[in-house]
Amino acid sequence: MEKAGYATLTRQAGLLREMQVVANNIANAATTGYRQEGVIFSEYVTRAGDGPSLSMATARVRNTALHPGQVTETGGPLDLAIEGAGFFRIETPDGERLTRAGNFKLSPAGDMVTNAGFRLLDAGGAPVFVPPDATDLTIAADGTISVDGRPLGQIGLVRPAAPIDLLREDGVMFRTEGPLEPVAEGRIRQGALEQANVDPVAQITRMIEVQRAYEMGQSFLDAEDQRLRSALRSFTR
Questions:
Q1: How far apart are the first and last CA of the chain?
Q2: What percent of the chain has pLDDT over 90?
Q3: pLDDT digit string, tens, across residues 77-113
Q4: Three-state secondary structure along the chain?
Q5: How far apart, in whole angstroms, are the C-alpha atoms of residue 186 and residue 156?
Q6: What is the mean pLDDT of the chain?
Q7: Residues contacting residue 135 through CB under 8 Å, at least 6 positions apart
Q8: Angle (deg, nearest 10), helices 3-27 and 200-236
Q9: What gap in Å lies between CA 64 and CA 173, rounded to an integer?
Q10: Across residues 161-166, what is the average pLDDT?
Q11: In the predicted model, what is the mean pLDDT of residues 28-36?
Q12: How far is C-alpha 201 from the geometric centre of its chain's CA atoms?
């Protein structure tokens, strides 16, 4: 295969990867706390022996959009939405993780947990506990938890000290290998949930653009294949 074919194949691979990412965004447009993902294209240039340099496109870097999603009122006392920056800290078997999905519930032991059963952590890193006999649970904008008018603790919002350290594990859960810092400007809103920050119309539009670009590249590869076949037939006559 000639250089043009290899360059087109790398572009096709990147477009296919972006199509998968866009399709995943659309599929999770209704997922609470989902963060939209994108693909960053870059150019790789190398010398091709004694000839001219060869440029290839790659799309190996994924970018997470951190702008807030729409907040919807639910009235649920354990539904929490973050207004502004920050993440909830949750405890998993693999270590602490970050999320903005605030649809929590109570475990049989009285811990606030995610739908997957991971415990929510307070500002000090301890599990958030709610007494089983609590009748009036309130969570203030600064994360202070009160039961029957008595403060019990505070949910802390955090973020990576360096945004580049934020690593996606799935659509709503992230990890970081760097230090965390508290977020003072973030606010917690009880009785509400933050929806996915996906713009479905923009994502569908992008899907159409990617599909057309992929089809154009495929047409070029088909034409290049026919050209090479014709050249080979001419040489073998």
A1: 21
A2: 51
A3: 999 999 999 999 999 999 999 999 999 999 999 999 9
A4: CCHHHHHHHHHHHHHHHHHHHHHHHHHCCCCCCCCCEEEEEEEEEEECCCCCEEEEEEEEEEEECCCCCCEEECCCCCEEEEECCCEEEEEECCEEEEECCCECEECCCCEEECCCCCEEECCCCCECECCCCCCCEEECCCCEEEECCEEEEECCCEEECCHHHEEECCCCCEEECCCEEECCCCEEEECEEECCCCCHHHHHHHHHHHHHHHHHHHHHHHHHHHHHHHHHHHHHC
A5: 9
A6: 86
A7: 148
A8: 160
A9: 12
A10: 84
A11: 93
A12: 18
Amino acid code (one letter) for 159: R
Q: Where are the domains of the chain?
A: 3-65+200-236, 71-194
What length does the chain have? 237
pLDDT class of 76 with cuts at 50, 70, 90: very high
Tell me, what amino acid is at 153?
G
Query: Phi, psi (5° rounding) for residue 24?
Result: -65, -35
How large is the average pLDDT for residues 138-167?
90
Rg (CA), the chain: 25
**Tokens read off for 138:** 């309130």
Among candidate residues 171, 205, 201, 216, the one with its CA nearest the CA of residue 15 = 216
Q: Give the residue from 167, 156, 185, 168 showing the smallest Cα distance to 87.
A: 156
